[in-house]
Fold each of these.
Amino acid sequence: MKEGNNKSTQKLNLKSLLSPQKKITYKLIAESDVKKSKGIVDLKLIKADLQQLKDPPITPWERKICANRLPFSFYNVPCTILAKNILGKILVRKLDNGIILKGKIVETESYLGIADKASHTYQGKVTPRNIPMYMLPGTIYVYITYGMYHCFNISSQEKGSAVLIRSLEPLEGIAQMRENRNDKVHSKSPKKLLKELKIHDLCNGPSKMCISMQIEKKHSKYSMCDWNGLWIEDNVIQEEMKIVECPRIGIKSAGDEWAHKPLRYYVYGHKCVSKRDKIIEAALF
DNA sequence: CCAGTGATGCACT
DNA sequence: GTGCATCACTGGC
């Protein structure tokens, strides 16, 4: 009754929300959707939210170690393309203390944006949490799920779209990864510290990977294109790689149609994948 | 190996 | 108050 103003513009279902800082109602999606807004949109606040976070200027050493970083054009492609292209690439993390962690990406999922019922941006919803999904391709989106676990995403070309990185094959900094994971487990059940995790158990799941790689919520809104803590490199070793395309995990509540779309991708036969889809795999032969 | 389940706290009806 | 884009553990094969 009161706000039927989007019928003349787009199909977007604009929802309102509260900013965490002030009680100001958002009324838009992003950049170009900013129009006349009945005075309830605080544009300055929106633009501040959409701004990429940046680190202090990088040192020559830092410039050197991330010289092989993949550029903006790698991320500026449709979501499903990025999700598949990113398989086999090397995710590199530089910790504050200088330690380098590396892993080969072996499992991803696409979240297509405003049309995708399983996406946080379904119907163009904007919240303080999901803003990174509307930002430039390559923007990092980390959120907390089930109260205690992190998921790491990278925004892609379409509005509100992002790729979820689910699993890595650990390549470098494995001792540090074990330490990170043990610390986490230790806080719950100290006995388990004695058990050494297998390499393929370090990063075979979205949250395990975040723990091993020390990827946290505060890293949201940084860009894979210029933050010197995290980037992706091409894999010089081009190995044979079959890709399995199957339904995504953990989105049952999105309804049958979207829950069944084959938007999860993983390297066939790889030990570090979080969960095989045996039905789909059987159909490959 | 696999399915079932409790934990846990934040984001948002 | 409800619902998670998960994990670690358990007990069954």
Amino acid sequence: MIVYFKNMRTRDELKQEAIFEATVKLVNQTGFVAGSVAKIAREAGVSPATIYIYYKNKEDLLVSTYKAIKQKIGVAFLKDFDDSLPVRDILKKLWDNGFEYISIHSEYFHFAEQFSNSPYAEMVDRAEIEKLFEPVFKVIERGIAQKIIKDVPFEVLSIFIYFPIMTLSNKRLHGDLIITDEIIESAFKMAWDAIRY
Amino acid sequence: MIVYFKNMRTRDELKQEAIFEATVKLVNQTGFVAGSVAKIAREAGVSPATIYIYYKNKEDLLVSTYKAIKQKIGVAFLKDFDDSLPVRDILKKLWDNGFEYISIHSEYFHFAEQFSNSPYAEMVDRAEIEKLFEPVFKVIERGIAQKIIKDVPFEVLSIFIYFPIMTLSNKRLHGDLIITDEIIESAFKMAWDAIRY
Amino acid sequence: MIVYFKNMRTRDELKQEAIFEATVKLVNQTGFVAGSVAKIAREAGVSPATIYIYYKNKEDLLVSTYKAIKQKIGVAFLKDFDDSLPVRDILKKLWDNGFEYISIHSEYFHFAEQFSNSPYAEMVDRAEIEKLFEPVFKVIERGIAQKIIKDVPFEVLSIFIYFPIMTLSNKRLHGDLIITDEIIESAFKMAWDAIRY
Amino acid sequence: MIVYFKNMRTRDELKQEAIFEATVKLVNQTGFVAGSVAKIAREAGVSPATIYIYYKNKEDLLVSTYKAIKQKIGVAFLKDFDDSLPVRDILKKLWDNGFEYISIHSEYFHFAEQFSNSPYAEMVDRAEIEKLFEPVFKVIERGIAQKIIKDVPFEVLSIFIYFPIMTLSNKRLHGDLIITDEIIESAFKMAWDAIRY
DNA sequence: GATGAATGAGTGTTCATTCAT
DNA sequence: CATGAATGAACACTCATTCAT
């Protein structure tokens, strides 16, 4: 049993979280371009100056938010990761994890996408992000070695097995299409057909 | 007395084109956020006020530029479109056209992508854009009817046959990978494997 | 006879002058530290943005204002400069010119002094300013050569013949003392006693 | 139990001194304008809030610092003051004391000068400062009575006997000139020639 | 048609100061 | 006594847009 004492969470943590949420929410609502520090502050219910206590500057705010989101996404994708299963099953699990997380936190994906297409994207170390997905890389490599997966660069494989998750989760890109379990299922079949040997 | 010869490009057309090019160039260089009207004007060698002669406001400038680019891309993709060929060959032709055009006009794709991830994206009528690709839709429909292509919504198919072109053309997304003819070839094979029946 | 047509002065010149006057006035009233761009703009009756049409940034505004003032002061000091007179008479004329100009434009001197003690002072080329006073340097050199003036570095001489003018014009430094013609006279005698051979 | 020994410097005194030094240092480094309370606090190794324990507000901090410096300077100038010597010798001693102290504590002079040219200068009682130099006034008065020194207001005398020390110590005002003992010597001769009867 | 000048509203950021702990 | 957190107001500067010419 977990007991939360009064003030167990300090004032700061609450505030930092409020800023995080506000940043994500605002970018979702009005886009990266219009996401000004003042607006984020108002959304978070704090003074603009307060943001500069927790973050060095706007870039730091956005980059840190992006990294935190990528961390969350990485953990969610790898939930119940089991190395010993067949490659296809592992990828299916990742795929399902992805869509499950999206259904709960689509705003994280939207933020990540907006961020990736902004000039700030260059300020994050890609290697740092990719490390989160290293177990997946290992599986893919094994699949290639066992001639289960096509022998093409990883970047190309990801276009068919990772990006579709992002694209399907993006309302702007597929308009009125409702993402049912059936569609998720058949899309995975397509992704697997694309990459399998 | 001023005489305009047939097909002569008037001063105005030249200016509008200069604004178009400047808009694309600036968004490519400094991103959507930093692409201010004043900077576009300077780049185009005109006064900021002049831009408001040709476009109602900044939104109009960007949306119009996007539409014009989409038009150019649509035409390029459908070059030498031949309805009578097998479905696979038609799609392969589109695929190759796409990469050829990208190699010449990557700045158009970059602009389009930035635009898609901006709040302005909601201001364009998707149907209008999609009309450009109608012949392709027809082919796909035929493919589905003939059980050559999987019977899934068009939006899902496009994730595997259209988006990969965009993704592969985006330097930011695939890092150091150099897009060779061989990669284009094998990526198409994967796309086709994904969508074929 | 000079005729001023209506609109002979363009709108801009009036505005630039208003900004110049406002800059001087504000620094006089509230000191260099408190002289913000917004306040200067309000004083000049223009928008803050307008200042950035005429000046690149705040530094440019202040440095340009300083240079313009130094120019005015230089011209005023050298009024009716006559090379052929005895050294003492030339310096006396400069001295009197200085106090005459101060009695009309003490705000220029106050601005110049404030500027000299600000970090912006380093941004002006001293040589450029000193060129305005070159004729005086020549006279001093002659005085030294003829053993009329003490043979010490020019910087030391100026402490006794130039700085006293500035100091006496500074109300803050001499408190309640009223600068009469008699004081100006006897102060020059002291200055001359200091530098003469 | 905490025991304070006689003459032991308590934590508080050390902290106040740290703030004093930090204030002087920062104004020397970045000028009066950029010397923010937060920066002074960081330089002193204390919290901004701590400064408000020792000083009512920023004005109080700066004014107090100025007064303390003026006190130090006053004491230094009057070191080994001997009423019984001839007027000229007394002033020479003051002059030499001044330059000696400048060579050790130029940062105090720089601060004092910056302060004098700030709006805060009006907030100090000049009489309070002048009292420190009262013994000098007496000597001057005696000199005037004995017809050794010119009979002009004290404010005018100080322009030739006190301000030159400040001006010569100001690197910004005399550029590349290096202040040697010889220059100090001849400058005093000039100052004396200026004021002597 | 084309422009440079002009601007109110906004940008990101720092300020002096207060307050709960 | 000492502090880090917090803030409204100000900072220098840029924005999209309008307007007189």
